[in-house]
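cron nightly-structures :: item 1 of 1
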Amino acid sequence: MRSGRRTRPPSRVCSCSGTRRSRTKPVDMASSPPVTDSVMDDDHLCDNCGAANAVDTEFCAQCGRFMGLSTGSSTLGGRTLTSEIPIVAQPRPAVSDGRSSIPAPAPSSRPRNDSKGRGEARPPRVEVAAPEVILDPEHGGMFELQVHNTSSIVDRFLARPIDPPPWLKLTHPRITLYPDQEDTVAIAIVVEAPKWPAAQRITLSGQVYSDEDPNEATAFAIAVTVPPVGDPAELRAEPAQVPLRDATSAKIELIIDNRGSNFPQRFELTGSDPEDVVGFEFSAAIVEVPPGETLSVDVTLTVPPPEAGKPQTRRLTISGANDQATIETQVTVEQETSTVQLRLDPTVIKARDVPHGEGRLIIDNRRGGADRRIRLIGRDPEGAVRLSFRDSTIVVRAGTESSTGFRVQSINRPTEAEVSRSFTVVASDGTNESTVDGTFVQTTTPAPITTAAIRLEPEQLNTRDQTHGRFRALVDNTRGSRTLSVRLGGADPERTVGFEFDVLTLDIPAGRVSRVGVTVSAALPASGETLSREITVIAGNRDGSVQARAAFTQVASPASITLAKIRLEPEQVTLHNSARGQLRVVVDNKSRALPLRVRLSGRDPERAVRFSFDPPRLDIAPGQVGWAKVAINAPRPRMGQQAVRNLQVAADDGNAMVEAKAELTQTTADFLPLIRIVYTLLGGLLAAVGAFWPWARDDWPVALFSVTGFPGVGDIRTFVGEIRNIEDADPGTHTSQPIARAIVLVLIAIMMLGVLRAKGTVTVVAALLMAVVTIGFMVYASVGFSAAVGGSGAALVIAGAVLGCVGGLCVRRKKP
């Protein structure tokens, strides 16, 4: 269909049917422009005859074809839906008279004479009151004709259609008119058809003829419009429920049912699903359905495969849409991936006295639509069996079945005569899983270990001064029906015995006894003691064990050292003002008939004494005595104190030892009283000499000479260098110097007499006062007389005071 620029006219709803159609206006057929090769952009071309029509034309002016498809009812989003489906319509010839817009043939003018001479019947004059008739679905149509009797007789007139469509019929009452009389008659257009005719516009040609002479007729023409009536087409899918098994695509037939309307409908077909994963392929995306008919369209659906092991149901929506209506239908796609069927041959796997059984697995894919690559695994809810397959991965063709061997093996040794365990074989193709259950029955005859026995010979083994002993183990399988394989082992409650077997594993035939040597070893008990140990020899395997018990007794002779005697000479050692001492250790082996070899060692509780032995080891013959020098070195106590230490000397032969004790007394002399006397007396002597020596130098203008006329002594002169006369201008020196020297002499006497006291406080105080007096006088002389102090006499006095103070401090303090 070719068209120029179009606009969408407004639509209205038909009052008779409720369907929507385009609004149209009457078309003057006579005034319709002829179709030319050049068509304006605003023209609307008919799809049937190609005639140009106005853009809002609902019916073609040339052939009456319903053109509502292009004026709104078959557009989508403002664009016209196009289709390659052929459109079939029967064109109607157009007629017209001078008073109508519809062309009509000219009336007949040939006169008709009455055979009896009563008058002449002539064609009536007919005028159409309204050239347009729109049919109603319920009442049909009605138009009026104005009929004028031009005859000279009273005549009756009837109307008849010319070449009408089969569904159309005209009904009206007879028109009886007197000569030159006219009347208006209503003519009904009746639709006689099982269904409403297709929407169309036709030119209905008819005649009003005389009942007296049917040949005397006048033609008329009227435009009859069959409006579009009905609902939008219905859409359904066949089948509406699509099962997909092992496939991802399917074809369905889409039925578009337009039997409920009398006008063609065009739709654009689309498909959708909630997940937007389904593909839709239509044999025609835009379809036109003729009025009152159905149309089928093939649709190919492409869906993704379902998730592994889960059926998938998808709800699809297929829609046909135009701007006037949208029709929909639902399609359900049920996807399923077929799983292979598994069978076990046999279902129950039996094993006797062996830990495994074998069978065959049959994989049936005869119902499958695709080849399967199957991976086989086994499951055991109890974890007691293990499955292995000859082919763990196998390809099974569609429509066939395959088989493979498998083995079921028990993980643990059964503890009962018969044990039944269930297992599951799982076949997985990566998407789905198929399972089959089986049973593994394991029957076990009694194990030989349950009837075996073991014993030890001898049951009591006694040894003296030995660390090992020898048993013989006898494993008895005389009551067994099968060869017994065992492994030997030993144990004791204290875990102090070692076991050594000549053969560690034994295979004892049925009805036989096997013997094997067993060596046990343990440390000797203490000398002179007896120790009995219970031992157990075990013969066992994974089915159980048997054991035998025996006693291993060890006797240890008394050690030589236990009869030996040891002593220290002397037992009392005294050291005065010394850290080193010496004594002798004597070891007596006269009570033993065996030689004795010992190693000497010493210690004291305070670990302050160091011991040295010469020689450090003694080899003493039976009945002899051995001795060694023992040098000791201990720190001396403090001066005037005493320390007493306990000494221990031991002789050890490697198993036992004997000890001897001695006492060490250390003393240190006290020299403090002597030091006190010496220092005090020496200090007093130096101070006395200094009291008579010059206390200042004599090279100053005012010199301090020795005392003259010393009180209680007489005239004493001290000569240092040459004697100088004291100046008369210095009377102070005659007064002060003798007093200071006298005080010093008194303090010297007190300091020296302080040694008679137990404490040195008097000596220390006197020495300090003596030093203070001397230093005070020197300061006084230097400041008051500008004397040059620093003579050797003052220095001796101060040195004597220091020695006396030290002597006074050399007094022993009592311990707190």
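cron nightly-structures :: done
The first strand starts at residue 11 and ends at 13.
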